[in-house]
Amino acid sequence: MNLVRPVISFAVLVYFDPETERAIRSLQEQLVWRGIQPIPEEMHREPHLTLGMWNGKAPPDFPDALLRFTAELGRMRLLFSSAGVFPTRDGVIFLAPVVTFDLLALHTRFHRTVVPAGLEPNRHYLPGAWVPHCTLGVALADWEMHAAMDIAREPPMPFEGTLESIGIVEFPPLKEVLRIPLPGPGGVPAGSGPG
Description:
Elements: E1 9-16, H1 18-33, E2 48-55, H2 62-71, E3 76-85, E4 93-97, H3 101-113, E5 120-121, E6 134-137, H4 142-149, E7 159-171, E8 175-181
Antiparallel strand pairs: 1-2, 1-7, 2-5, 3-4, 3-7, 4-6, 7-8
């Protein structure tokens, strides 16, 4: 019997403060109430933005590089003002934060200072291609996609949120490798400082 083993991958995610997470979960619950399937168990259900994704396991020095990078950051405020879909047959709906200079600078600096050469990236998360988003649903049928888009017109939309921590996950199966709280309001704002 020839069993194909899934390819191990890892990703770096930024997570939200509890108030923002509650607002996002409220939207996810609204989808379920409308009969739209929730995010599958095997996926990372905790609301987040993905900074990057690569095939393979994180290199041994990657956590230390992420810790050094995180020490230069402060918590970042975001405004979620719209919902969107990707132009694929994957049936993905997401919340989109307003793309600010600081958010793009955080992403670009992360890739420039933390990510070593030689990793095999998912190209959708590279600078210049990245669409910052928080996934609300995946593998949705066409009718689910249309119904789900209505949530962008209902409370709590639009709403502000805060990025509060950053972490590394590996999958499959999903395993959190590291989570680092971002310094409080006194930290250096994203997009400034050395780098």
